[in-house]
Amino acid sequence: MIKDNIKNAALYEAVHPAFPAAFAFLKEAIAHPKEVGRYELTDGAFAFVQSYDGKSADQCKIEAHKKFIDIQCVVSGKEFFGVADLSTQTLYEDKFDEKDVAFYHGEVDLLTLRDGDFVIVFPDDAHRPQQGDGSRIEKIVVKVPMI
């Protein structure tokens, strides 16, 4: 798991061949907001532009993916993003084959994400997005295929 701000995105572009395009999309979408929806990028990557009200912890699910790395970037608002090592979680719903996601029970550590902050979560990272204080969160999730 990596947490940083979009102003430091260049530090991570060499991690994956699709990361330069992913971060270019994020920077463009922050500068010129995009409509909610799905956007196709290069190298099999795609992005979801989202807008929602932050939820309480008990309304949020802990999840993980096998086929994709997530770059989750808050455009505006404040999100409490839960993270944990996947090995510390207990699986309760496996949808890896259908949707590349599984859901877990367990404890997470909370990171606070504000305007321009992002997290990169890999397949060994369980994560619980969308927690907040009820206020609006504008966010982009870029899905980057594992190599």
CATH fold naming = Jelly Rolls
Rg, Å, rounded: 14 Å
Q: With helices defined by DSSP (H or I, 4 residues minimum), what is the helix count?
A: 2
The H-level CATH homologous superfamily, spelled out, is: YhcH/YjgK/YiaL
Poorly predicted runs of 5 or more residues: none
Distance between the termini: 17 Å
CATH domain class name: Mainly Beta
Biggest sheet details:
6 strands, antiparallel
Tell me what portion of residues adopts beta-strand conformation.
over 45%
Structure description:
There is one protein chain. The protein has 147 residues and is mostly beta strands. The chain has one domain: Jelly Rolls (Sandwich), CATH 2.60.120.370. The chain contains two helices and twelve strands; from the N terminus they run βαββββββαβββββ. It has a six-stranded antiparallel sheet with strand order 1-10-5-12-3-2, covered by helices on one side. Strands 4-8-7 form a three-stranded antiparallel sheet. A hairpin with a 5-residue loop joins strand 2 and strand 3 (46-53). The longest helix has 13 residues, at 19-31. The radius of gyration is 14 Å and the shape is globular. The mean pLDDT is 97.
